Amino acid sequence: MRTPLIAGNWKMNTTVTDAQTLVSQMTGALGRIEGVEVLLCPPFVSLAAVKAILQGTNVQLGAQNMYWEDKGAFTGEVSPLMLSPLCRYVILGHSERRNIFGESDEVIACKVRAALRACLRPILCVGERLEENEAGKTRDVVSRQLRSALSGIGDIGSLVVAYEPVWAIGTGRAASGEQARATSGFIRMILSDLFGDAKASGVRIVYGGSVTAGNVAEYLKQPDIDGALVGGASIKALEFISIVDQAANLKGFRQA
């Protein structure tokens, strides 16, 4: 059984006070929705404050990034050992980390291995740029990113893969349901090639890229898409609640 996952990536938005208010606006309604795992990923500075509010709820907490070393002279970085007492998940390889901050496939691979060592659940983001999509290179890019990030890893039971086409991040230009389904199916084929069908069938693959309450159903109806990584819509309480509610109605628990 693959439990649907709806994850909210708040990016560099909300002060600590804003984060506390936003979570308080959502937790009551989210707590009444069953059959979906809900995850909130606020900025680092708000993790402890949000964790306190989420105590006793079924809403999970995640970080948006991390460094791969446990400690050391790495000014401004946050290590997996710092995160593991605070949260359960960590987003790695997001297109903004790759394209704005220059994170390579090799850097992301180091982060995935470090997250797993710290018993954090990585949400590994993969996806192509617009020019790569238009050149028909989507599968080449996604395959390279997956194979690099998962090299040397044996257990993928806690892994989530997010297909996030770069051209759809924050642009309002989302992939079609069929585009997302085709690439998600390809991702599962790569996972099967690397780890076997049994392990691959248990990995949740979610779609991210300009997801809203108005278009999320198009993705959740697809058989190989197990949820969504939501950006801007996740900092709008009513819209995010609607997305989670639709996931419960459209997916619920289902056989992998």
Structural class call reads alpha/beta
Domains, number: 1
Mean pLDDT: 95
Shape designation: globular
Strand order, biggest sheet? 1-2-3-4-5-6-7-8
CATH-derived architecture: Alpha-Beta Barrel
Number of strands: 8
What is the straight-line distance between the termini?
5 Å
**SS element count, helices:** 11
> Oligomerization state of this entry?
single chain
Flag low-confidence runs: none
CATH class call: Alpha Beta
The fraction of residues assigned to DSSP E strands is: 5-15%
Give the CATH superfamily.
Answer: Aldolase class I
Rounded to the nearest angstrom, the radius of gyration is 17 Å
Q: Give the biggest beta sheet.
A: 8 strands, parallel, barrel
Order of helices and strands: EHEHEHEHHEHHEHHEHEH
How is this fold's topology laid out?
Elements: E1 5-9, H1 16-31, E2 37-41, H2 47-54, E3 59-63, H3 80-83, E4 89-92, H4 95-99, H5 105-117, E5 121-126, H6 130-134, H7 138-149, E6 160-163, H8 177-195, H9 197-201, E7 204-208, H10 216-220, E8 227-230, H11 237-250
Parallel strand pairs: 1-2, 1-8, 2-3, 3-4, 4-5, 5-6, 6-7, 7-8
Keywords:
256 residues, globular, 8-stranded parallel barrel, alpha/beta, 11 helices, 8 strands, TIM Barrel
Architecture overview:
- Helices cover 41% and strands 15% of the residues.
- It is globular, with a radius of gyration of 17 Å.
- Helix 1 (16-31) runs parallel beside helix 2.
- It has one domain (5-250): TIM Barrel (Alpha-Beta Barrel).
- By secondary structure, it is α/β, with parallel strands linked by helices.
- An 8-stranded parallel barrel has the order 1-2-3-4-5-6-7-8, surrounded by 6 helices.
- Helix 10 (216-220) links the parallel strand 7 (204-208) and strand 8.
